[in-house]
TrEMBL record:
Keywords: Glycosyltransferase, Transferase. SUPFAM superfamilies: UDP-Glycosyltransferase/glycogen phosphorylase. Pfam families: UDPGT (PF00201). GO terms for molecular function: quercetin 3-O-glucosyltransferase activity; quercetin 7-O-glucosyltransferase activity. This is UDP-glycosyltransferase 87A2. It comes from Raphanus sativus. Belongs to the UDP-glycosyltransferase family. InterPro entries: UDP_glucos_trans (IPR002213). Gene3D superfamilies: Glycogen Phosphorylase B.
Length: 453
């Protein structure tokens, strides 16, 4: 079924427009898969750049989801980290016109609704010109959205526009609705990324004009922030998460890394993911490698780039290095007992769904607050951090000790952390059961789509 061909009028047509980045595309695709599974009368056109269509690859998807492409007018995914503000400017400046032309070609049936990433600045105004309602999908935590919407409070308290002293970093921010009391050092440093944040503010200003707001989180995880935002924004808010690929978990085929996990003792393996966008310096990576080796812990390390170098560095060690793996399948394997993560929100949700304690190693933006919530609020992880602010690197001995502490199944702290992780896993798995909060909110959202004229 192709949306450019004639379809029965009873079909509703969702146009999905993710921000061009893996951490945004994946949850948008997971949402679309959930939508077409819940309603057989929905079809989806999933819009990405030509480059991203090639990067997505042949991942299985329902027949009623089709791809459409925009031209490669923005910096490549391979280099966007070199000039991130330039990348943001390009998305905001160059993709609006080709997207609007694409909408004109999607005529049978015409688009019923556009589901756009919150960071796509021009989505709402395109929808208004074309008389197509626009829904906003927020792919980070609800808690950090409340923080961003209250940046004026950070400014008025002297917590936003300049680099804080070491003593000021210890001050508690307890005045943001939906945000648990948090030290300033555990919030994204707006003064460092102020240009990026100001771009974000333009997008946040568009939220009240959207038809509704969708979260990828589970309502039970961030109840206070979601309830507050529901009252503040004046539009319907639906928590559709955890928006992770749990429905595709398959045990029919067994790649080599799964066969290796099958041979390991229960909860004995540390899964290490260095993320898909930002990474660390070469010197820091050397310390991480040596620290993990010295811990003696078995590990499965996914290396997106530099796989051969890492394999050489880990020769004779107790682990396996791969270039790619099915992360959620790995995390749900009984052999995995810990998850080294940069704390991107998608990975955070997958870690919680699987019930695996996390070793939090944030690098950038929302990862910093996610790490704090993992360790202090949800109490399902340990944070790797410099002992002193003046330290340039987290050294191998520190890494060795924190890895051993995370993987210690006998300590009282370790037992309590695993109990909390199991409790959250049960909550997450309950959310996506037939009568759970995720499906209830998705069904409510679909009813809204079907009532759109």
């Amino acid at each position: 079924m192709d949306p450019t061909e004639s379809q029965p009028l009873r079909h509703r047509h969702v146009v999905a427009l993710p921000w061009p980045g893996r951490g945004h595309i994946n949850p948008m695709m997971n949402l679309c898969k959930r939508l077409v599974l819940r309603d057989t009368n929905l079809i989806v056109t999933f819009v990405v750049t030509e480059e991203w269509l090639g990067l997505i690859g042949p991942d299985p998807k329902p027949d009623r989801i089709h791809f459409a492409t925009l031209p490669n007018l923005i910096p490549s995914e391979l280099v966007r980290a070199n000039d991130f503000i330039g990348f943001v400017n390009a998305v905001h400046a160059t993709l609006e016109e080709p997207f609007e032309k694409l909408l004109d070609r999607l005529s049978s049936p015409p688009p019923t609704v556009i589901v756009a990433d919150t960071y796509v600045l021009w989505a709402v105004r395109v929808g208004e010109r074309r008389n197509v309602p626009v829904v906003s999908l927020w792919t980070m935590s609800a808690t950090i959205l409340s923080l961003f919407l209250h940046s004026d409070l950070l400014v008025s308290h002297g917590h936003a526009l300049s680099e804080p002293s070491e003593s000021k970093e210890e001050e508690i921010v307890d005045y943001i609705p939906g945000l648990p009391p948090t030290k300033l050092r555990d919030l994204p440093p707006l003064f460092k990324n102020y240009q990026v944040f100001k771009k974000g503010e333009l997008c946040f200003a568009e939220l009240p004009r959207a038809k509704c707001l969708l979260f990828t989180t589970a309502y039970e995880l961030e109840r206070k922030a979601i309830d507050f935002l529901t009252s503040k924004l004046g539009i319907p808010v639906y928590s559709t998460g955890p928006l992770i690929p749990f429905e595709k978990l398959s045990f029919e085929n067994k790649p080599d890394y799964i066969r290796w996990l099958d041979e390991q003792a229960e909860t004995s393996v540390l899964y290490v993911s260095q993320g898909s966008f930002l990474s660390v310096s070469e010197a820091q990576m050397d310390e991480i490698v040596e620290g993990v080796k010295a811990s003696g812990v078995r590990f499965l390390w996914v290396a997106r780039g530099g796989e051969s170098k890492l394999k050489k560095a880990f020769e004779g060690s107790a682990g396996v290095v791969v270039s790619w793996c099915d992360q959620l399948r790995v995390l749900c394997h009984v052999a995995v007992g810990g998850f080294w993560t940069h704390c991107g929100f998608n990975s955070t949700l997958e870690g919680m769904y699987s019930g695996v304690p996390m070793l939090a190693f944030p690098l950038f933006w929302d990862q910093i607050l996610n790490a704090k919530m993992i360790v202090e609020d949800w109490k399902v992880g340990i944070r790797i951090e410099r002992r002193k602010k003046t330290e340039v690197l987290i050294v191998r001995d520190e890494i060795k000790e924190v890895v051993k502490r995370l993987m210690d199944r006998e300590s009282e702290d370790g037992k309590e952390m695993r109990r909390r992780a199991c409790d959250l896993s049960e909550i997450f798995q309950g959310a996506v059961e037939e009568m759970g909060s995720s499906n209830a909110n998705i069904d409510h959202f679909i009813r809204d789509i079907n009532n759109t004229t």
